[in-house]
DNA sequence: GGCAGGGTTCGAACGGTGTTCGTTGACGAA
DNA sequence: TTCGTCAACGAACACCGTTCGAACCCTGCC
């Protein structure tokens, strides 16, 4: 207050520190780093901004909103997919399975991406390129157009759902021992249900809790779906 | 009373209005009403409390947290599933499909429940009873124990994922006209892609955008999965 | 060289979220 | 009647995504 009246009050000009300019690229980088390290829910616009040494408002000059950022994350992940060689009509079923395995691998390598991807038609570049590849494999398998198109929706949906499930369950970094203990508890929970009302559940308690964390359950899923697709192929 | 003038100030005692007591039941009722009417994202502890004429803190005497409330909502929905008659070995594939149709029906009738259910092992009463039914059908279909168990995981996962997808896309009450316009835009978007890099996508533009809102795509999915399961049945 | 203008940066704020704290009040048991 | 218990609740905490407006920097034109 006691400043002299004639003195314009704005003396403390902290010079804007020279920083690397903000870009879409750097924002997605930071978001990806955080998501891999702390999971989807722990990633907010504020945290990303903090990671970049700025405020949340700065991000909105490069990204429309969090939804768009999610799409960019999906694209970044899709970019990591190693897509195979030419579609091979003799081998299409195995190629479909490989596609799904590769998709799951990438989603596991980028936890949280599944959460961003689910329920979104992938309209970004690399995601669409991988869909193109999948469609080519399906057509090589002599699937009718409509079946191929819907399958290109069904397959990623399954993989994404599986990955999403894993994301939710792996929330807050369980150790393998934790998982094993939890699965054990669940098995005895199933086994101890009243046998008159849950006869089959009790009988299958072991099977129901088998392969919870591993790949067997996923392999089962892609086997079922691929076999189901094969039944729709046109005769050669 | 008759306290001296320097009495501690706390005179205005508005009498607590006599209200119907809060119960778990009434909380779930209110949440269900709101979720059906406004969708999952519009439902918060505050809104639920407001609907009940109280504050959010009051809810926590009956419900541990929002996650538990989600589980209760899932159970409430599972309760609405009309589960069929006895498992019929001759008809098990159709029974599996009916089960999935019924599950989707209930999830559509309770938008947002899919969001609460995905990635959660259903350990609440009615959800488990429906799983028991499903397992019985699968065993009637002569599936090996392990296949039946994993299928009982795969099938609800698919239905939930489909419903979740619909939930996300139907966010903010699109009219059928809106949907049609959007689908049309997407079709031309696919059709106008560079044909050298997206040959199959361009060729299948129509098929890719067919049956977006209807049941055909879902019917395709359950057909594929059921056929795939059938291929795993043990010979009778 | 000076200057206008457009994009970038960013502090502050808005309206929302889930959850917790400490107090209040009603009611059943002693 | 008194006491103890526990549901109810107002207020607050620490967040969230997003917007606004002012300051700032760089570029291109006169």
From TrEMBL, chains A, B:
Q: Which GO terms describe its molecular function?
A: DNA-binding transcription factor activity; transcription cis-regulatory region binding
Work out whether the entry's keyword set contains Transcription regulation: yes
List the residue ranges of the region (Disordered): 1-22
Q: Which organism is it from?
A: Kribbella antibiotica
Q: Name one GO biological process term.
A: response to antibiotic
Keyword annotations from UniProtKB, A to Z: DNA-binding, Repressor, Transcription, Transcription regulation
What is the superkingdom listed in this entry's lineage?
Bacteria
A Pfam family it matches = TetR_C_1
Residue ranges flagged as DNA-binding region:
44-63
Protein name per the record: TetR/AcrR family transcriptional regulator
Matches recorded under InterPro entries: Homeodomain-like_sf, HTH-type_TetR-like_transc_reg, HTH_TetR, Repressor_TetR_C, Tet_transcr_reg_TetR, Tet_transcr_reg_TetR-rel_C_sf
- Where composition is biased (Pro residues), the residues are 8-18
Coiled-coil annotation: which residues?
Answer: none
Q: Does the keyword Membrane apply?
A: no
All residue ranges annotated as the HTH tetR-type domain in the record: 21-81
């Amino acid at each position: 207050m006691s400043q002299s009246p004639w003195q314009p009050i704005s003396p403390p000009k902290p010079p804007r520190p020279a920083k690397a300019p903000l870009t879409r690229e750097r924002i997605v980088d930071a978001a990806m780093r955080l998501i891999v390290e702390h999971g989807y829910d722990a990633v907010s616009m504020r945290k990303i901004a903090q990671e970049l040494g700025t405020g949340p408002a700065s991000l909105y000059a490069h990204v429309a909103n969090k939804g768009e950022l999610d799409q960019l994350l999906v694209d970044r992940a899709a970019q990591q997919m190693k897509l195979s060689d030419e579609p091979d009509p003799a081998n299409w079923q195995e190629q479909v399975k490989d596609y799904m395995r590769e998709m799951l691998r990438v989603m596991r390598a980028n936890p949280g991406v599944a959460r961003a991807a689910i329920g979104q038609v992938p309209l970004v570049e690399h995601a669409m390129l991988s869909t193109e590849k999948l469609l080519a494999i399906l057509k090589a398998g002599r699937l009718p157009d409509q079946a191929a198109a819907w399958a290109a929706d069904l397959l990623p949906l399954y993989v994404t759902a599986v990955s999403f499930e894993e994301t939710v369950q792996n929330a807050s970094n369980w150790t393998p021992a934790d998982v094993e203990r939890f699965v054990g508890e669940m098995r005895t929970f199933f086994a101890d249900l009243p046998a008159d009302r849950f006869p089959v559940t009790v009988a299958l308690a072991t099977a129901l809790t088998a392969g919870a964390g591993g790949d067997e359950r996923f392999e089962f899923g892609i086997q079922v779906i691929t076999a189901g697709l094969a039944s729709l192929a046109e005769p050669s």
